[in-house]
Write the structure tokens for this entry.
Amino acid sequence: MCGVTGIFAPGRDAARLAFFALYALQHRGQESAGIAASDGVSLRSHKAMGLVGAIFDESMLADLSGHIAVGHTRYSTSGSSIVVSAQPLLERSDLGDFAFAHNGNLTNTEELRRRLSPAVTFDAGSDSEVLAKLLVEEKGTLTERIERVLERARGAYSVVLCTRDELYAFRDPWGVRPLALGAFDEGGFIVASESCALGTVGARFVREIEPGEIVRIDANGIESRRSARKPERPALCMFEYIYFARPDSEFGGRAVYLARYAMGRALAQEHPVDADVVMAVPDSAVPAGIGYAAESGLPYIEGLIKNRYIGRTFISPDQPMRARGVQLKFNPLVENLRDRRIIVVDDSIVRGTTTPRIVALLREAGAREVHLRISSPPILHPCYLGVDMATYAELIAANATVDEIRAHTGADSLGYLSLDALVVAAGRPREEMCLGCLTGAYPSVPAGVGIRAPAGQN
């Protein structure tokens, strides 16, 4: 779940705008970040491991002068967590140099790699680099090359790239990963993974870039065209609504906050319980927790205080970091918890490693009862399209019943939101979303992958 942005802003410092846009997208990736910029003559870049604010300073941004820029903040699903895998990637082609930034995950990487000439060398070997090398080796204009990539590449890819004088953005024909287009009142455009990044840099939201669409921006303005490939059904990842997107972003004209609030209300209707108060696990579950409290008529409280300087544990690069992060991340608010029956709303249970620690933390703080309510259905299948959703062996809901999961977490009761209620809350037709991790029905999966029925959920 990387974050990407592209800026074309004549007369302005595009790298600085990209820096603040990446700050707004930092929740989408915490391993590395980078910015490439052009002044119309030369293309320069800087990238490193770490968070956006720790990588760039005034002198580095000054070296990235120019009115065109692309930026990336990384969460790895393909390729190692090392600096050579950081983006944007800089590529050299017969059309000139370009900088390339990708959010998503390809499902036919090896097939695409075989299309490349044996002389091609790789620095990182990620699916992003394979996609970029394909553009180098294709013939024709850059737009024509992108069209051919759209015909061949399978999986999820929202991409921004810039040459010395142009900005491009394109999205896979399913639209699995989001991509928003904004405009500056004083002239110029911005593309970003989420609409929340647009207001941060003073741009207004124009629209979402459509699945299979190619956008080209230069000094003459903006040009859009669709791939010749037959359009696929839209399939925006449902996990954007559940967890990944910032609540102030919007998809399809509906704010993520309102979708999560509606999830909480529906959860209270489906799984009421006799309790004293409602709380949520910060931060992504807070709107659902507020919605649950509103529907149930119970008071909403803060039960856990979050250390704002600890990253999102779900996207830590490995399990030991994830486990340690939970211990560092929350402090219980004992005065709100002692001797109370608590309803705890969380957005999901994936591996089942974090939730038992949270339940134990609340009990140690004096909670008399802990009732877990999850504002998504059970995660039953791995994700092949850019979310770190483990394997079947690691997914707890694929191998245990709801009551077994409840016992594992140590909660007094456990209730999941139904799939139908989730779809209604998102405000998007079921056929226009990817629900693969919930149903096993994916818009695109690797060849040879078999989807099995989860144990314990029949």
